[in-house]
Amino acid sequence: MKVYDVVIVGGGPAGLSAGLYAGRARLNALLIEKDKDGGQIVITSEIENYPGCLPEESGSTLVERMSKQVEKFGIERTSDCIESVDFSGDIKVLKGKGKEYHTKTVIIATGAYPKPIGCPGEKELIGKGVSYCATCDGNFFEDFEIFVVGGGDTAVEEALYLTKFGRKVTIIHRRDELRAAKSIQEKAFKNPKVDFMWDSVVKEIKGDGMVQSMSVENVKTGEVTEIVADEEDGTFGIFGFIGYLPQSKCFEGSLDMEYGYIRTNENMETNVPGVFAAGDIRIKSLRQVVTACADGAIAAVMAEKYIENEGGN
Questions:
Q1: Which intervals hold domain FAD/NAD(P)-binding (predicted)?
Q2: Catalytic-residue membership of 35
Q3: CB 3.0 to 4.6 Å from 261: which of 71, 195, 250, 283, for a disulfide?
């Protein structure tokens, strides 16, 4: 039975950063990613706030360089989806779809996924006008109307990106002011293609095979507005950016959590010795690429110290 020094679950910025530090420390490390590297950052069209990022940096270009850097240190990689875990012993067990992994330490960097808008018709029309990825689907709405649901950094940044495609982009926000950083807000207010529906929520999305209309309710007045696709267009785009949900289901009952997010201390240690969490999956005040990378680095260094001081016996 092969026992790794560390198994890193997740190939986003936190997992890749942990992999880089584990590789440099010459740990016997395995990084497991169920899909492709990058997590949520891959669908981010523009990155301006990561120190040293290139001009016109996107999530995919940044992750590509991170992945190549990790490869340089030769840590083992595999594609699998962890379905259950057993953290009760000194050797931790992670059970994938067809294989078990045994390790002295674990770094959980599974991140989060987009939160649905939460209205009737949404699920049925995903990929048929409803999307959560501007870079993936923005070009499908060339010269169409586009609606963005949300008011935080991501929502406003992606709305600005979508102005490259749509003839008009309307931000629907449940409050009367945006939550995005002031610098991002300023760009949105100056852009002539960006409009706003304040104090509003999407109540229903309708369409036969593709989005054709939606009902939007004003939360203060209760007034419902029916938005119907332009007759010539036949459809419009609805992009949801209202937050994320943690990918932590397989760790439930094994770790201390709050609303699905894993509780750690400043050293990324969970309540189980030898198990660490990094990035968007943990309870934290700022979920950004820069903090995810810092988390991953700390987790890997702490995992190495754990093996040296406690877990190596």
A1: 4-296
A2: no
A3: 283
